[in-house]
Design goal:
alpha+beta; 33% strand; six-stranded antiparallel sheet
Length: 171
């Protein structure tokens, strides 16, 4: 399977901030932004793997860096930065732009992991990636360490889940 250039996996989605998407501080709800990032990353995963179904396996910490205000537009950019056999690490970068002044700022970042599924709903192999820009090379070179950390966290989460109860809290 031939690797693909990272730039060929890139998806960019722009949107305006609507009043219904604001919290009581008059900034964009974090959950609304996370939904936008997941939707953009899904398209990236499908573009890279060329399968009908890609599922979100995990979301590494979402870093909210700057608030997004009602006067801003929101640009979510996502692309594959690292791959496993059937998994794809996708980086999301959120840029807020004040539509009155044109000032742009990085508002949030996140890494999401997706798994490509075949028609039988089992994981299928995905192509590797070829980084070209300085940003792409940095994210690619640091991807192996993030993959290791996710593996450790998966094991820790399995341990945690093994100690949880399904009992109703009011019983």
């Amino acid at each position: 399977m031939e690797p693909k250039k990272i730039k060929d996996t890139r998806v960019v989605q722009n949107d305006q901030v609507l009043i219904n998407d604001l919290n009581n501080y008059h900034t964009l709800f974090g959950g609304v932004l996370m939904k936008k990032m997941d939707a953009c990353a899904t398209l990236t995963a499908r573009r890279h793997s060329r399968v009908t179904e890609c599922v979100t396996a995990s979301t590494d910490s979402v870093n909210f860096i700057e608030p997004i205000l009602q006067d801003d537009s929101v640009c979510v950019e996502s692309y594959v930065t690292y791959t496993g056999k059937s998994s794809m690490e996708i980086f999301c970068k959120v840029i807020a732009e004040n539509l009155d002044t044109g000032e742009r700022r990085i508002a949030a970042t996140a890494f999401l992991t997706f798994v490509a599924l075949g028609k039988d709903r089992k994981p299928v192999e995905v192509p590797g990636v070829i980084p070209e820009s300085q940003e792409e090379k940095y994210l690619y070179e640091t991807g192996k360490e993030r993959a290791k950390m996710r593996s450790i966290k998966r094991k820790q989460n399995k341990e945690l889940v093994s100690h949880l109860t399904l009992n109703k809290p009011w019983d």
